[in-house]
Amino acid sequence: MQQSSKILWNTEASPNYYKIAFPYPENYPAIGSGQFFMVRVAEGSDPLLRRALAVYRVGGVDVFPELKGPGLSAVEFLYRAVGRGTGFLAKKREGDSLDWVGPLGNSYTLPKEGAHHYLVAGGTGLSSLYVLAKELIKIFPVSSVHLMVGGRSQKDILCLPDFEPLGIQISVTTEDGTKGARGRVTDVLESALRTVPSDSAHVYTAGPIPMMAKVASISKERKIACQVSLEGPMGCGFGICLGCSVEIFEKGERKYRLLCKHGPIFNSEEVYWGEA
Amino acid sequence: MKPDLSVQIGSIHLQNPVLAASGTFGYGEEVDLFDVNLLGGIVTKGLSPKPRMGNPPPRIVETGAGMLNTIGLENVGVEAFVREKLPRIGHLKAAIIANVFGGTVEDYVTVAQRLEGEKGIAALELNISCPNVHQGGMEFGNDPGLAAEVVRAVKRATRFPVIVKLSPNVTDVRLVAKAVEDAGADALSLINTIPGMAVDVYTRRPLLKNITGGLSGPAIKPIAIRMVWQVSKVVSIPIIGIGGIATARDALEFLIAGASAVQVGTANFYEPLTMPRILSGLEEFLHSQEIPSIRNLIGTLQV
Ligand SMILES: Cc1cc2nc3c(=O)[nH]c(=O)nc-3n(C[C@H](O)[C@H](O)[C@H](O)COP(=O)(O)OP(=O)(O)OC[C@H]3O[C@@H](n4cnc5c(N)ncnc54)[C@H](O)[C@@H]3O)c2cc1C
Ligand SMILES: Cc1cc2nc3c(=O)[nH]c(=O)nc-3n(C[C@H](O)[C@H](O)[C@H](O)COP(=O)(O)O)c2cc1C
Ligand code: FES
């Protein structure tokens, strides 16, 4: 659906990272883990295209104590101001209107069984994993869900307090050791996977391409199912411009698939990682 | 009284002058954000004899008030279109116009023959902004003789009205317009995208895998209006205006400059409700100006 909504908050979560939210009544379309919205960052024709943002959190006062009143609910996004469009977005204030189209794209596939679920995040990739973590703990023991967050330094580790109430296991790594263990998140994943049988583990990852490529290759080595959330340029977000094609291997055959419609979540084995 | 928005493109009757441009509205079945039956018409993604995968990514890049694309004419092929897509859109009140392209004259004819007699199609639109594989990649639309040859060949193969979509990539668009009119075209549509390029200054690489791409969006509107006006002076067949249209006022500019209808492209991407909004804007304009029919505006430019 498309709608213009009043912004509830647009606050800095960490230097250059923002959380933006607007009301999302219960009768609006249900949002699945990994889905995204296309938002208009400015009126007029420059910047022209909408920007894609993965849904971070969605819910009522249980999720957002800021919501004043029962029966209210909201959807929230976590983004990094990287360029012109997200820069415009960061300047928006509470009460300004935000025009959006969504929810769009596919969702993570929830496995039927599994004793270990590893959610591996880098940067704003974390945003697509919150709804997933909540979906997983609804059907699996909370101790089976493990969030691994990595970044260059302390300031890249975002929003952990949002995840703590879920009760899942959380590991933090930074390359400079300013928060959590020193090292790379992919090393943490690798050692964790060594301790579990392949057929009981599932990996879900969202973040920078080199990180996801590494997560994919570690999972592949251990023959563990891995789903990845891809990003890339998008013209429309809903399947009419064919501008978002990504290269996919289906049964060994090279194909283009629409990131916005067949994705953004793909099985890691299908993805062509290029030189990454 | 409700103003009359209906227009006539040769023998094609349209309930209103607002159509979705080729390649910007899929095959007419993808969009569910509004009722597509409101539209005057839908021009399909370009169709070729065989399916095409299109170009490698990245395929699009945003530019000032516009975007560049190198989709590479990805499409399901005419056979799958007729069997899988047409049955889902052929019953619409919006006229379905099949956009056709090829690398040879025979390609155009093959697609036209396969579409011949299919129910639910109102017309063909020939995209002649394509390289001719037999002529060193020279665009059909760049050469009045080649363009006329395609039109004559397709006219022999079809009974559908033939709209020829002109390329802006020429020195004088009037020469091609005249040539295709003489070759039997029933209407013209213009413009297609304008070749352009963008560079990443850090990597020093082009931002599109294909290096160059077609510019579309509001940035090209003044060029498109100029070409519509120029062509309207030299042909007597109807013209459909295309290029950067995003508001009712944009559409009105094209109609006054000489177009009998318009197509909306890039705006569908960033503002999916553009076309229904243009329709209500046109109605409001006619109402407020006490003009009974949109046809009273066509080609009324005062110079
Ligand atoms: C499905 C999906 C979900 C996303 N979720 C998030 C999220 O939750 N949080 C977040 O911070 N970012 C997210 N992104 C990336 C975000 O859309 C880009 O950072 C943003 O478009 C950059 O716009 P800009 O104008 O600030 O940057 P510029 O670099 O100035 O953008 C110029 C152009 O490039 C495109 N572009 C640049 N970088 C990217 C990129 N990485 N992905 C897609 N398009 C890009 C822009 O859309 C724009 O058209 C997501 C992208 C996709 C495709
Ligand atoms: C992503 C994209 C794909 C397009 N594909 C086609 C096509 O298949 N055939 C065609 O004749 N024109 C195609 N066009 C050109 C448009 O139909 C239109 O002529 C052009 O974009 C100018 O209009 P606009 O500024 O409103 O987009 C495409 C344009 C875009 C942006
Ligand atoms: S973004 Fe337009 S088709 Fe995917």
Largest interface: pair, residues per side: A-B, 27 and 35 residues
For the largest beta-sheet of chain A, the strand count, sense and barrel status come to: 7 strands, antiparallel
- Order of helix and strand elements from N to C terminus of chain A: EEEEEEHEEHEHEEHEHEEEE
Summed up, the helix count of chain A is 5
- SSE topology string of chain B: EEEEEEHEHEHEHEEEEEHEHEHH
Main sheet of chain B?
A: 8 strands, parallel, barrel
Query: How does the overall form of chain A come out from the CA principal axes?
Result: globular
- Briefly, what CATH class of the largest domain in chain A? Alpha Beta
Helix content of chain A: 10-25%
Question: Which spans of chain B have pLDDT < 50 for at least 5 consecutive residues?
Answer: none
Bound ligands: flavin-adenine dinucleotide, flavin mononucleotide, FE2/S2 (inorganic) cluster
CATH homologous group name of chain B: Aldolase class I
Structural class, from secondary structure content of chain A? alpha/beta
SSE topology sketch:
The complex is a heterodimer of chains A (276) and B (303).
Chain A: E1 2-6, E2 9-14, E3 17-23, E4 36-39, E5 51-59, E6 74-80, H1 84-90, E7 97-104, E8 116-122, H2 130-139, E9 145-151, H3 160-163, E10 169-174, E11 181-182, H4 185-194, E12 201-206, H5 209-221, E13 225-229, E14 245-250, E15 253-258, E16 265-267
Helix pairs in contact in A: 4-5
Chain B: E1 7-9, E2 12-14, E3 18-20, E4 41-43, E5 60-63, E6 66-69, H1 78-89, E7 95-100, H2 105-115, E8 123-127, H3 144-157, E9 162-165, H4 173-182, E10 187-190, E11 194-197, E12 199-200, E13 205-206, E14 212-216, H5 221-234, E15 239-242, H6 248-257, E16 261-264, H7 267-270, H8 274-289
Parallel strand pairs in B: 3-4, 3-16, 4-7, 7-8, 8-9, 9-10, 10-15, 15-16
Antiparallel strand pairs in B: 1-2, 5-6, 6-14, 11-14, 12-13
The complex binds flavin-adenine dinucleotide, flavin mononucleotide and FE2/S2 (inorganic) cluster.
